Every structure is written in C-alpha cells, then in structure tokens.
C-alpha cells in the first residue's frame, strides 16, 4: 500500500522513535516536532499518534472531530511555547495533490518567527 492509500509513513517511525526528531511537545494523543526542512525560524509539525483514517484532512469523519480540535488547540500551545503568541504565526494543512501534501499522515504545520507573506503560491 502506498502512503496515500493508508500505508505507513515516515511519521510512524518518528512516533516509534525509530528515526530521530526534535520533539517539542507530546501527550497521549499527539506529538509536535521540528520540520526537517524548516520554511521559517519556527516550523513545527503537529500530528496524531494514531493516524487511523486521518491520512489527510479530506478523509476526516464525524468521529475525528475531537482529535481535530485537539490538534488545533495543541498547535497554538506549541506556538506559544515558541513565543509566537506574541507575534502571530500561521497554521497550515496541505491536503492531497493540489495542496502539495507529501506525507499522508495528517499534520498541522505551525510556521512563524518572521514576517510571512500572503497568499501562498
Ligand atoms: P506536507 O508537504 O505533506 O504538507 O509536509 C510534510 C512535511 O514533513 C514537510 O515540510 C517535510 O519537510 C517534513 N518531513 C518530511 N520527512 C521528515 C522527517 O523525516 N522528519 C521531519 N522532522 N520532518 C519531515
């Protein structure tokens, strides 16, 4: 199975600590770590530890609502941990091919630490 069909991704290895990542927050439901290819001084990824059907946001179901809320709440929490609550920051979810998603395990990008521009490309 390819990742986009729900097979394992590199993030499973990060969750299992099989490959290193700089983890900045973790609880029973989710994990936040630094993106390996940061697009800004702070670039974190917030992911559910159990992907389930959440390979991408467009696969979300009714029973994913509490996890989605938890991930968004956690995005702000880790942003504040980085001091970004004082300056502003951006949360992004890339979905599917046209959204430029490359890892099919739902993740929220938390990006900040410099003046960002809008709209994205
Ligand atoms: P996407 O393009 O799917 O929205 O974002 C995937 C993100 O995962 C990219 O920003 C990419 O740099 C990051 N990424 C991919 N592989 C790894 C990895 O092994 N470790 C970490 N920390 N980030 C990764």
From TrEMBL:
Location of the active site: 107
Name by which UniProt lists this protein: Histidine triad nucleotide-binding protein 1
TM region positions: none
GO molecular function ontology, one term from the record: catalytic activity
Annotated motif Histidine triad motif, positions: 105-109
Domain HIT, first and last residues per copy: 10-121
